[in-house]
Amino acid sequence: MKPQRVDLLVHNIGLLVTMRGKPGPRRGRDMSDVGAVTGGSVAIADGKIVAAGPEADVWAEIAGLAVDRTLDAKGRLVTPGLVDPHTHLVHGGSREHELELKLKGVPYLEILAQGGGILSTVRATRAASENELYEKAWKSLNIMMLYGTTTVEAKSGYGLALEDELKQLRVIKRLNETHPVDLVSTFMGAHAVPPEYKGRSGEYVKLVIDEMLPEVKRQGLAEFCDVFCEHGVFTVDESREILAAAKELGFGLKLHADEIEPLGGAQLAAELGCISAEHLLATTDEGLKAMSDASVIAVCLPATSFNLRAKSHARARDMIELGVPVALSTDYNPGSSPTESLQLVMTLACLHLGMTPEEVITGMTMNAACAIGRGDVIGSLEPGKQADLVLFDATNLAYLPYHFGINHVDTVIKKGRIVVADGQLTV
Ligand SMILES: N=CN[C@@H](CCC(=O)O)C(=O)O
Ligand SMILES: [Zn+2]
Predict the structure, then answer these.
(1) What is the chain's Cα-based Rg?
(2) Residue 147, by phi and psi: left (phi above 0), alpha (psi -120 to 50) or beta?
(3) What is the pLDDT of residues 71-87, one digit of tens each?
(4) Taking the domain 83-371, which CATH number applies?
(5) What is the average pLDDT across 271-284?
(6) Which ligand lies nearest to the CA atom of residue 335 in the structure?
(7) Which of 58, 115, 315, 372 has the fewest Cβ atoms within 10 angstroms?
(8) Percentage of the chain surpassing pLDDT 70?
(9) In a 3-state reduction of DSSP, which class is residue 150?
(10) Which of the two residues, 405 and 2, has the higher pLDDT score?
C-alpha cells in the first residue's frame, strides 16, 4: 500500500548502491552487479523504503506526497546498511595477554589445548554478570553502528554449560530489544569442550543435544545452531549429530568449517543443508563444489585469517568462480578477530581474498543478509524493504577499501531513523 507521506527523503546522492535484483544470494558474475545509480534519491516512510533510484524517478514516484524531512547527501556514496553475519559479540574479558604467545609462534589450537583461547574467554564469561555482558556488548554494537553496521548475527558459545549459554542468549535478546542495531541469535554450545568434560567430548555432545538444544528452543532464544568442527574440537561425526538434532528441532544451521584442517566441514554443511559455512580456509575443491550444488553461503572472515597470521586465506576467487555465494563478516570475538569494523574487512577482502569492491559490498549486504535468513527484509534498497542505509564520506566504492584503517561513515539510517550523523551517535 502506498504511504500517505514521506518521512525522510535522502537526495543529492552521488552514487547510490541499491543491490536491487533477483531475491536470494548473488553468485558468480551477479556478485559484481550492485545496482549502482548515479544521482539518486531514497524516499522512506514508516521505516521502510518507498522508492530508491534515479532522483527524477523517485520524485515521480512520490509526487503529491508531503515530505516531512529531507537530507542532502551532498554527493556522497550511499549503500544498504552493512550486515555482519558472524560474530561472537557477547563475551567477558579480552585476550591481549595471548599476543606474546602468538608472536612466539604458538598456534591457535595449541593455545586452546593448553586451556587458553576460547576457554580463557569461557572463564571470563562465566564470571561476568548478565549486566556486565550487556554493557560490554552494547559498547561494541555502538562501534559497529558508527562503522556502518545495522544488523548483526551474535552467537553464544562462551558459556558451555546450560545456564551460562542461556545467560549469553538472554543478553543477545535484550540487546536486540533495546539497541537500534538488529540482532539475529545463534546457539553455539558446541564451540569448545568445556574443561569439566575434558577427554569426554561424547558426553558433552550428549548434554548439548539432550539438554541445551531443547531448552534453548523452548525459551525461543536462538534461530540458528552453529558448531566448531575442527581438529581437537568437534569431529565431523559429532558436528553432524548436533546439527541433525538442531535441524529436527527447527533451528537453521551454520558450521565453522575447515578453518585450520580440511576435515570435510564444507561437505557436511552441504549434506545437512546449512544456510552457511564459515571460515573455509582449508576447504578442498570437492568441498566448494558441494557447497555450490547445495547453495550453502560461504561466510569468509579475512580479519580472522589476518589476525591469526594464516599462511593463506579463504579462496574467494575460486568460490565465486564455482558459483558459491560469498558473504563477509568481522567474526568479532576476543581471540581470533578482535575488531568490530566491517570497513577493515573490506580492505582485507580485497587485498587477501582478491575480491573487487563490488563483490565486497555484495558480500556485506545482500549475501550477508541471506546468510542470516534476512534476504527478504534487508540487504538491498528496494521498495518495501527496511530503510537501513549508510552515507559514506566517499564518492565511489573503491575508496572504502583503498583508504584503509579509518572510518568513512558520515550518516547511518536505521529503520528510517538517523542513528549516526556527522560520524557521531545521535541515540
Ligand atoms: N574458530 C572458532 N571460533 C571463533 C573464535 C573464538 C575465539 O577465539 O574466542 C572464530 O570463529 O574465529
Ligand atoms: Zn566464529
Answers:
(1) 21
(2) alpha
(3) 999 999 999 999 999 99
(4) 3.20.20.140
(5) 98
(6) 1
(7) 115
(8) 100
(9) strand
(10) 405
Percent of the chain at pLDDT exceeding 90? 99
List, in sequence order, the alpha helices (H) in 147-208: 162-178, 201-207
Residue with cell 550477508: 368
Give the separation between CA 242 and CA 188, rounded to whole angstroms: 10
Cβ neighbors of 139 (< 8 A, separation 6 or more) are: none
Question: May I ask the CATH architecture of the domain 5-81+378-425?
Answer: Roll (2.30)
Binding residue per annotation — 158? yes
DSSP category for residue 114: T
Q: Is the ipTM of this complex over 0.95?
A: yes
Strand extents, DSSP E, 46-181: 48-54, 66-67, 70-72, 77-80, 82-84, 149-155
335 is in an annotated binding site: yes
For the chain, which residues make up each domain, given as ranges?
A: 5-81+378-425, 83-371
pLDDT of residue 31: 98
Q: Is the pLDDT of residue 425 over 90?
A: yes
For the segment 195-214, the average pLDDT, to the nearest whole number, is: 97
Q: Please tell me the residue having the least CA distance from ligand 1 atom 11.
A: 331
CB of 363 within 8 A of CB of 300? yes
DSSP code of residue 26: -
Which helix (DSSP H) or strand (DSSP E) does residue 268 occupy?
A: helix 265-272
Determine the residue of 331, 332, 345 to mutate for testing ligand 1's pocket, defined as the one with the most ligand atoms within 8 A of the Cβ atom.
331
Q: Which amino acid is at 322?
A: L
Average pLDDT for 203-232: 98
> What are 416's three cell numbers?
528510517
DSSP 8-state code for residue 22: S
Q: Ligand 2: distance of its center to the CA of 279 in Å?
A: 8
The 8-class DSSP code of residue 212 comes to: I
Parallel, antiparallel or unpaired: strands 8-17 and 5-6:
unpaired
Position of cell 558448531?
227
5-81+378-425 and 83-371 have identical folds: no
Residues 6+ apart with CB under 8 A from 155: 86, 87, 88, 89, 185, 186, 187, 188, 191, 226
